[in-house]
Amino acid sequence: MIRVVLPAHLRALARVAGEVQLDVAAPVTQAKVLDALEVRYPMLTGTIRDQATGRRRSFVRFFACELDLSHELPETELPPAVAAGTEPYLIVGAMAGG
Amino acid sequence: MTGVRVLVGTRKGAFILTSDDRRLDWEVDGPHFPGWEMYHLKASPADPDRIYASQSSGWFGQLIQRSDDAGKSWQTMGNTFAYDGDPGTHQWYDGTPRPWEFTRIWHLEPSLTDPDTVYAGAQDAALFRSTDGGQNWREMAGLRDGALPAEWQPGAGGLCLHTILLDPSDTERMFVAISAAGTFRTDDGGSTWRPKNAGLLSDGIPNPDAEVGHCVHHIAMHPSRPDVLYMQKHWDVMRSDDAGESWREISGNLPTDFGFAIDVHAHEPETIYVVPITSDSHHFAMDGRLRVYRSRTGGDQWEALTDGLPQENCYVNVLRDAMAVDRLDSCGIYFGTSGGQVYCSADSGDSWAAIVRDLPPVLSVEVQTLP
């Protein structure tokens, strides 16, 4: 079970509190986690990745195990602790005013 | 209960203001979608409980929300706004070509007759339509085919399609306005479009009377006379009596003819309203005084309306979609400001009172007249 932490605005949009748990088949990659997230919560489609390009939105970051995974390729496998569900995959709204 | 429902989009959420027909006591509901930019909310004329809302943020992109119970609850609708084919390029600020890129929806215009049909004006400029209540969107790409899009260029707010007018007497005719491109009209339900900018003069472009390239800020129509259009251009207030075939200036005695908002009295098609703004570099009310100007002659002669509006130390702006009118017997006029005030006049502009004073900056105001 993959644990995903959403930023507050997306938790409100998806109407969830706390972490989201997703079933993702191995090998667990960022793309597969985000695909599973959008299947479970279709209202999040387009909010994390641009619909036209599929790329991560500029002000969204991906963290796990104290690593910044934002610039990793979508098909890169996530750390074993994330795949095992002992550490969460963090989707973070970048710190920026506005 | 006869009354009004005011839909307010702000920089940080949406608010719904309701009152009976006296328009003295208001219930304020919100914020809906707190923290999100709510560019526009508008209800279906065919189903007053159906409200569409454009929700966006610099972090998380564009979403469309729909309520079927007058704003009590909302559901997230489709947000795939894909350009039809390769949209090519438009001019960037420095004159270089730049590929079309979707950013947000500025304006939602529900059909006059079908609650499930709604039009959306996009940045970068394009017109989308949904016929299933906002779930699926398709670009009406004919707008770009005949309207010289390579000559379009962004205004300070981006290259946005911000105004959509539906002709109540002809289901095939629509008007849209784009900053900075101009006004365009279709007579065949959106298949083909032509620029309708003859008579506009804009000093900020190389050819002041070019066919396209004008920074039209807003256009307005009275439903009883759809061939008569009023326009607030970047500079100049304009009028057309032939459905946009030709325009003439009606700025008359306005203290400045820069502004964004323009609207028409519900029962007097020759009575129009603007809010003059000092200039394109100031973007605030002139001389620290917030004044609505009314013309009862279809333009040229204007009177300042000040009763109840701040007349000193006021430096707010009023954006293009932030003025609306209700259709009660005594016509109500509404506008919202960059300072978070929403003002109402229940007597056609003679006197004003703030409904709310401390909202986030107001992006849009629409009014429903309830049976």
Description:
- The complex is a heterodimer of chains A (98) and B (371).
- Chain A contains 3 helices and 5 strands.
- Chain A is of the alpha+beta class and 98 residues long.
- The longest helix of chain A is centred in the middle third of the chain and has 11 residues, at 30-40.
- With 371 residues, chain B is mainly β.
- Chain B has a single domain (3-370), classed as Methylamine Dehydrogenase, Chain H, CATH 2.130.10.10.
- Chain B is 1% helix and 40% strand.
- In chain B, strands 3-2-1-30 form a 4-stranded antiparallel beta sheet, with no helix packed on it.
- The longest helix of chain B has 4 residues, at 142-145.
Task: Name the descriptors.
heterodimer; A: 98 residues; alpha+beta; Ubiquitin-like (UB roll); 22% helix; B: 371 residues; mainly beta; Methylamine Dehydrogenase, Chain H; four-stranded antiparallel β-sheet; 40% strand; globular
Provide a short characterization of the protein structure:
The complex is a heterodimer of chains A (98) and B (371). Chain A is α+β, with helices and mostly antiparallel strands.
Structural class call of chain B reads mainly beta
Q: Strand tally of chain A, please?
A: 5
The shape of chain A, in one word, is globular
Spatial strand order of the main sheet of chain A: 2-1-5-3-4
Write out the CATH superfamily name of chain B.
Answer: YVTN repeat-like/Quinoprotein amine dehydrogenase
Number of domains of chain A: 1
Oligomeric state of this protein:
heterodimer
CATH topology-level fold name of chain A: Ubiquitin-like (UB roll)
Question: How many independent structural domains of chain B?
Answer: 1
Number of strands of chain B: 30
Count, helices of chain A: 3
CATH class of chain B, named Mainly Beta
Report the largest inter-chain contact.
A-B, 20 and 15 residues
What separation lies between the terminal Cα atoms of chain B? 7 Å
